[in-house]
Amino acid sequence: MVTTTAPPTAARKKAQAPRAKAGMTRKRREALAAYAFLAPDTIGLLIFVALPMVLAFGVAFFKVDGFGNYQYVGLANYKLMAGDDQLWASLKVTAIYVVTFVPIAFVVSFALAMLVRNHFKGIGWVRSAFFLPNVVSLVVVGLIWQFLLVDKRGALSKLLAPFGLGDVSFLGTPSLALGTYVVISVWFLMGYQMLVFLAGLKDVPKELEDAAEIDGASSWQRFRYVIWPLLRPTSFFVVVNSTIGAVTGLQAFDLVFVLTKGGPARATSTVVLYIYEQAFTFNNMGYAAALTTVVVAILVICTGLMFAFTRGGRFDED
Where is this region: Disordered (predicted)? Predict the structure, then answer.
């Protein structure tokens, strides 16, 4: 015996109409709430990031001094870059810093996230201790480390004195200054990146790990085939974010400005610091604007290539 469902009557359709209308109203309210939360940040980005970038692109075609005098020079500011040896030296320092800082910070912060992943007594204090440097002003961080590393009289020099290293100048030796700068940057940012990895680890289903353990998978195998594949989008975000921060972030200017001001012998002169010097020390505002647009273009290209080749960290998915 075959039964058929009668089409909805007019009364049934009339009863369903208010429900659909209520559903649409709820969706609109949720959408309005989402836009309301996003609006302040979006407005801030437009005013303090997008608008200055557009203005910098326009100023790059002018020769501007510190007195507000504008002279149109076309592409002259961009042509100056080819013969600017200090620019290329700053780009080299920045590249060395990025390829050193990004992987070290990645490994250290990921190891910390794995360490504090499981709950134990005092876990909140441990996580707070690792994250604490990130909430302190970078100027304060730079002054503290400068006090610790001051030649012969710093706390670190006194600790290393019994080993014959008390006279080592970590910030005054060209071969050591950049490495010291990398170590301080890792110490400063490892807590933030640890929390990002920790959030990613929280999203890994516990059932998958338990199933792999029941199947006889070792700790390394559970990490290699369960945890790591699910963490690739998070890892991609950390790499991209730390790369951009290493080139243009606060630690690329504030920290190095307080610690060494680009010295000794320009060993820690990053490209952001060089742009600052051109703008506010030598009053070459137009040239500084041109340098800024080039650096932004390089970052956009590199980030786009990383997205294209890895599909946002999902490079092995079909």
Answer: 1-24
